[in-house]
């Protein structure tokens, strides 16, 4: 009996040893990075790991210690987070012989060749995006190669919420790593070249760090609505030590001036390295970085500029502007403002959380202006909802609707018996939300998308939209006000004549023209002021004003000169590190009737240009020289000049300290470029000085293999 038990025990031990000897073991994993990257449109990322898009198959090759048998059990696991669990969706496990299901992850054997096995993996079109770790399980053996797999949104997949049907649109809004941000004013729009750089080194890891920092649970990482809203909060630093610290003070000595940035990559790379907010940003920088983050994660995105953009803090669709008796704007009387331009973002996605009809472009904004649900975040708000006045729909549609539709109300503040009296001068119903702009698809030019945000001013559709929106806002009298306007008895009209652009160092020479359509004689008290303001409407300096009494006496036109010497504004230009512009406000009060007429003019500065000298074509791994030449054609010296240059695929941002440049002076700076990637590439340069800010230039070069 004892011999029989001994024999059975020996057989079991022998069986275990044989089983261990036959146990399949994984020796290696080839993620077939380049093959998968080309098929998933991720080959441009400067990242050594596998990057794939959800809802689309990818392949990997497993290497075993022996040939695969039919009874071998092989499983794959993908996990993310510190404590991955199946119950939370942060651990995905599948066997190679599992049935494929479009709603779940699956893996199947595509081919075997000796000890190698080609495996096809499929993720669902609503899988959580993130940074997954891969391991291979064969029986009791678990192989952890340390391979990271990045999973992104997929605009090429019809089942993905961010699906975009047009190849040209995907090329522009997902794959294009350069573009333009539009700045200036509605009268004079400037293009600001910008390197989005979503494929540059560490940019993807920076985005993944932001995702982890957000604390979004797995189920919310599936949803582009939640992800885009979260990123609008994380790109600013106000609540969560996010990417950019906003600063509109005009003093940027403790960081980088917002005007100095030429692209997003340097900002995100610095943030990823330090894990601290980068100083400093303003609206176009926030928008540029958010475009980069969205495109990097696979959400189609574009930067959008709204000219004459309202910041309505009272939800009444009115922005109040107060002028004193000299015609000068008084900032302290209102929290409302009109920005000459404001740059935000549109992202493309389905809105399954809303009623039908609101898919497509959604507005989001990372500039910290107003608190939404407790933190500084904004959107996504459907453009179709903004256009149709459906301002009750999430998120922040009321605020964005006001940015493009508010009325501009001018008030005169008069001192009467020691107290301020507020007299309404005029209400402009068509002054807000002009020339809404983005880069055109496949072209280096501006596209006007105003019609995507609002109906034509004065149209019946616009009136219906306003009626609908006002029913949800504090502006019940607004539609009637827009329709009612009574002609003035005196028929006084104001306009200005002169150059609408000004070279720094030149005097301001304008003519105020007073016209009267009435044959009668009228006496008008005229006041005109001239101020230096930032693009957000902040008054930096009062440059002077004039007061004069004029009599029409049947004259067709009366001309009144408004002259300001250059010395009056040059010192302020040099003391404020923002790009400024000149605002002229004119008020005329008819003494006989008490009627008041007012007008406003914006003057932008214009600057000498930078010339870029480099070949039109070059080859990979063959160095070439790029030179930047600048001549100061102004009548004033430019002090503390700095040149910022950046070339994606050539070099990271470089700074040249050019010192002071006298009138007529020239500098020439060179940089050696080493192209690493083929295709159309851009080099961007930006020049800042104490007196002049934001001189931009770009140069395109074709790199061949």
From TrEMBL:
What SMART domains does its record include?
A: TGc
Q: Which cofactor does it need?
A: Ca(2+)
State whether keyword Cell membrane applies: no
Explain how, and how many, cofactor molecules are bound. Binds 1 Ca(2+) ion per subunit.
Residues of the active site: 283, 342, 365
Q: Enumerate the UniProt keywords alphabetically.
A: Acyltransferase, Calcium, Metal-binding, Transferase
Which residues does the record give as Ca(2+) binding sites?
405, 407, 457, 462
The record's listing under SUPFAM superfamilies reads: Cysteine proteinases (SSF54001), E set domains (SSF81296), Transglutaminase, two C-terminal domains (SSF49309)
* InterPro entries noted in UniProt: Ig-like_fold, Ig_E-set, Papain-like_cys_pep_sf, Transglutaminase, Transglutaminase-like, Transglutaminase-like_sf, Transglutaminase_animal, Transglutaminase_AS
Q: Does the keyword Transport apply?
A: no
Question: Which Gene Ontology MF annotations are present?
Answer: metal ion binding; protein-glutamine gamma-glutamyltransferase activity
Q: Where is the Transglutaminase-like domain?
A: 275-368
Identify the domain of life. Answer: Eukaryota
Q: For this protein, what is the EC number?
A: 2.3.2.13
**PROSITE patterns (UniProt xref):** TRANSGLUTAMINASES (PS00547)
Q: What is stated as this protein's family in its record?
A: Belongs to the transglutaminase superfamily. Transglutaminase family.
Fetch the PANTHER family from UniProt. Answer: PROTEIN-GLUTAMINE GAMMA-GLUTAMYLTRANSFERASE (PTHR11590), PROTEIN-GLUTAMINE GAMMA-GLUTAMYLTRANSFERASE 4 (PTHR11590:SF70)
Official protein name in the record? protein-glutamine gamma-glutamyltransferase
Per the UniProt record, the source organism is: Alligator sinensis (Chinese alligator)
Lineage of producing organism: Eukaryota, Metazoa, Chordata, Craniata, Vertebrata
Gene label: TGM4
